[in-house]
Amino acid sequence: MTLSIRIGQGYDIHRLIPIKEGSEQETPLTLGGFGVPQAPFAVVAHSDGDVVLHALMDALLGAMALGDIGDHFPPSNPAFAGANSQELLTQTLALLAQQGAAPVQMDATVVLEQPKLGPYKQAIRASLAQLLQLPLSQVSFKAKTAEGLGPLGTSQAVAASVTVLVQVCE
Length: 170
Ligand code: MG
What we know:
The structure is a single chain. This protein is an alpha+beta fold. Helices cover 27% and strands 33% of the residues. It has helices at residues 51-63, 69-72, 85-97, 121-132, 150-153, and strands at residues 3-18, 27-28, 30-31, 34-35, 41-44, 101-111, 139-144, 157-169. The mean pLDDT is 93. Bound molecules: magnesium ion. Magnesium ion (MG) binds at residues 12, 14, 51, 54.
């Protein structure tokens, strides 16, 4: 049996709309499987719009050169309308497991102007650790603003970037 380590990175961005102007498609702001309380913005997305989990899935697939989430869960497929990202993550982890692969470490960054995520960072980190079944020490979650610049800085969007290390037993 040989052990190898592979690296993957993922990125995602979704549009935000103020809650009070939300349409039927609005989705409460969920990051890393954690619902941010009283966020003034909702995510515009086909799925639940969890940018952290979407970036994480792309990172996991990328580590194994398995394409991207659009290949596996196409938004054109009505089966994935309003899809729960946690369920899709479970399917992604199962795909990796078929190849003897499992994540061993992750590092995530979210860019969001409002609300400030400081009070929720540890809860988001704990949620990610639980979803990945990893010890907290192997999971990092960071939050930044965009300093008022561009669509991210004017609360028109939220973005996430994730890097993972995946261990493969062959
Ligand atoms: Mg997405």
